[in-house]
Amino acid sequence: MRYISTRGQAPALNFEDVLLAGLATDGGLYVPENLPRFTQEEIASWAGLPYHELAFRVMRPFVTGSIPDADFKKILEETYGVFSHSAVAPLRQLNGNEWVLELFHGPTLAFKDFALQLLGRLLDYVLEKRGERVVIVGATSGDTGSAAIEGCKHCENVDIFILHPHNRVSEVQRRQMTTIFGENIHNIAIEGNFDDCQEMVKASFADQSFLKGTRLVAVNSINWARIMAQIVYYFYASLQLGGPARSVSFSVPTGNFGDIFAGYLARNMGLPINQLIVATNRNDILHRFMSGNQYVKETLHATLSPSMDIMVSSNFERLLFDLHGRNGAAIAGLMDSFKQGGGFSVEQERWTEARKLFDSLAVDDAQTCETIAEVYEQTGELLDPHTAIGVKAARECRRSLDIPMVILGTAHPVKFPDAVQKAGVGKALELPTHLSDLFERDERCTVLPNDLKAVQAFVSQHGNRGKPL
Ligand SMILES: *Cc1c(COP(=O)(O)O)cnc(C)c1O
Fold it and tell me: Which of helix, strand or coil describes residue 309?
């Protein structure tokens, strides 16, 4: 399988190289040159497969030529073997024909484990084969950091540096990162905000001389392998609800358009999906596009669903590429005007095309709390604030009651006690067994000033399993 850039000017890469790449050299994002397509019979024959076996069938075409089948199978069995629920991604019914797909049974209790547990293992496999080492420098506002550290902690060939804004992530989120020890794991608390952290990561990708020749790898959802891993659970959910004979709809709490883009790909690979609902919080750039064809940057608001607090959705470029007939020059132009002036709309027929599949809703903090309280009252299920946004959007935007509606449950409520408390739900939140002593564990973290040079110096001094590069 070959991968091409959404801006049309970078060389095509194979899976291995795309795994190790950040942005394409032209500033675009990599996508498969040809998406695999499965027949209905083929998809139907996968009913009842365990998660890792379904994962093998769905993802196999993407890695062909880079990873032999037997190795890929083994990697997937290991990856999804660490999840604490034997179904890996169980469905839970909320209401008539309404379901939550629980994606929070991985080590860090958010859906990001599905991709990052796999990414760590794929990196180690590919690097071992090539006899190379890499450095990861990533920024997190919460969930990505812990999932990336958990995913890479056993990697022989990866040193990982995660930047988080000092004193601005929740205690559970911080401890999920700082209590994991290893000579290749480095937590850095930056005396700044999340944007400062992200800017430093971007600047480090732009000029990698401080790495003395070691390659820098991306762990955010611009990395194709993350999107790829997320396609699988759309198939998994559908097969349990009568698919592919029956069409299914999904509501997806989204920020960077990564998770929902995976659903869009699943549909293009042959899975009958009736409707995809973009569920955002007050940071609603995606909702403004879907509802009014305006893609315009606005100021950032801190919300009760911090993992979706973004101003710009990086993966949206991947959808725009398809909407524009995969014309890289057109995307380069759009992105350029976005950078210059802050916004664009697309031609009416392109927007109408998108709206055949996508609906959207922006949900504020008050509605998020109302939904958590309402669902708890009706069913006894406690939702995390991100999932609650998905439920609210599903109920508002649903086109047909006859088609099963699946809301992606993106995190465990214990990660977001503030929202649960504000919702007035009296239930005590308990950490799952593997994290029950989280608050007693020792922490390891380095506080650094909001200064790129200081961070890069730290990375180059510790980037080789704690030793200088
Ligand atoms: C990262 C995250 C999201 C948003 O995912 P995108 O891929 O950015 O759309 C939603 N909910 C939770 C809990 C997350 O951690």
Answer: coil
Q: What angle do CA 104, 109, 114 make, to 5 degrees?
A: 60
Residues 6+ apart with CB under 8 A from 106: 82, 83, 84, 112, 113, 114, 117, 147, 150
Q: Quote the longest CA-to-CA distance of the chain.
A: 60
Q: Which residues pair with 361 in a beta bridge?
A: 279
Sequence-distant (≥ 6) Cβ neighbours of residue 354 within 8 angstroms: 290, 319, 323
- Cβ proximity of 26 and 5 under 8 Å: yes
- Of residues 417, 406, 418, 393, the one with CA closest to residue 284: 393
Residue 268, in any domain of the structure: yes
Q: In ligand 1, which atom is closest to the CA atom of 258?
A: 7
Task: Give the three-class secondary structure for 114.
Answer: helix
Domain membership of residue 124 (yes or no) is no
Q: Output the domain CATH number for residue 298.
A: 3.40.50.1100
The answer to whether residue 213 is domain-embedded is no
For residue 189, give the nearest of 161, 211, 160 by alpha carbon: 161
| Beta strand residue intervals within 104-150, DSSP E | 134-139
Note whether residue 188 is domain-resident. no
Structure tokens at 329: 């020059």
Helix H, strand E, coil C: the string for 176-238 is HHHCCCCCCEEEEEEECCHHHHHHHHHHHHHCCHHHCCCEEECCCCCCHHHHHHHHHHHHHHH
Ligand 1 centroid – CA 144 distance (Å): 9
Q: Which active-site residues does the annotation give?
A: 112
Which tens digits make up the pLDDT trace of 69-91? 999 999 999 999 999 999 999 99
CB-defined site of ligand 1, < 6 Å:
110, 112, 143, 221, 253-259, 307-308, 386, 410-411
| Domain extent at residue 401 | 86-109+224-422
Atom of ligand 1 nearest to the CA of 384: 13
Residue 254 C-alpha to ligand 1 middle, in angstroms? Answer: 5
Whether residue 432 contacts residue 442, with contact meaning beta carbons closer than 8 Å, is answered with no
Return the sign of the alpha-carbon dihedral for residues 229, 134, 139, 222. Answer: negative
Atom of ligand 1 nearest to the CA of 112: 15
In whole angstroms, what is the distance from residue 406 CA to residue 393 CA?
Answer: 11
Residues 6+ away with beta carbon under 8 Å from 233? 89, 101, 103, 114, 408
Q: How many domains does the chain have?
A: 1
Express each pLDDT in 179-233 by its tens digit.
Answer: 999 999 999 999 998 889 988 998 998 889 999 999 999 898 899 999 999 999 9
Read off the pLDDT of residues 417-452 as tens digits, 9 standing for 90 and up. 889 999 999 777 888 888 999 999 999 999 999 999
